[in-house]
Amino acid sequence: MNALHLFHRWLPTDPAAAKTAADLAADLKSLRRVSGRRTTWSAGAVEDALHHVYGAIGPWLKDARSQLATTDSPADRARWAAWIAALTPPEHIVKGTFNQVHVLVGTAREMLRALQWTLDPCLSVGSVAKEIERLIGTGELAPATKINQGKLAQQLKVPIEYVGLALADLGARGLVELSATGRAKVPRPNPGNRRAVAVTDAARPGAA
Fold this sequence. Notes:
Blueprint: H1 3-9, H2 15-30, H3 43-57, H4 61-70, H5 74-87, H6 98-118, H7 125-138, H8 149-156, H9 160-172, E1 177-178, E2 184-185, H10 194-203
Helix pairs in contact: 2-6, 3-6, 4-5, 5-6, 7-9, 7-10, 8-9
């Protein structure tokens, strides 16, 4: 089950949250993926598309900045900052290209989906990181274990992206090993990895 399915299984009962969810869904629908040959896009079509994307995403930048200010995860903070920087309209929209529209639409859709997930009452990214750290410490995620992000997302009832962000935070602390493709595994204990050893020792039964 993917993150989007997890979101759609839960529908807001609060009227304000329900309206926000409906508005997000409508704007996502309006930002259809860019298709067609770039040669069929005139300069005017590109300019209109840029104005449409900035117009659709503009009202949501305040919510994005709120997420940036309140998130408990460095990796999550970095992605909100990147989205805000990419989607804040320039003072004067210069002549763009088909590729720029393609990238901008994709970025806008990513941010709107992330805002959808914030409406779901689930663990924060920081809390997911703490739970993974606990699983490593207790041995439920044993050394050298490859971490199944989809399985963890289902177990914790969070979007799979939250697991990936949590693993990025843990990787920065040396508590998991991350490959270039984003796959993660629990490192083998060794005296040189003091942080990993400390986590394991602290989680042992009877540890002070």
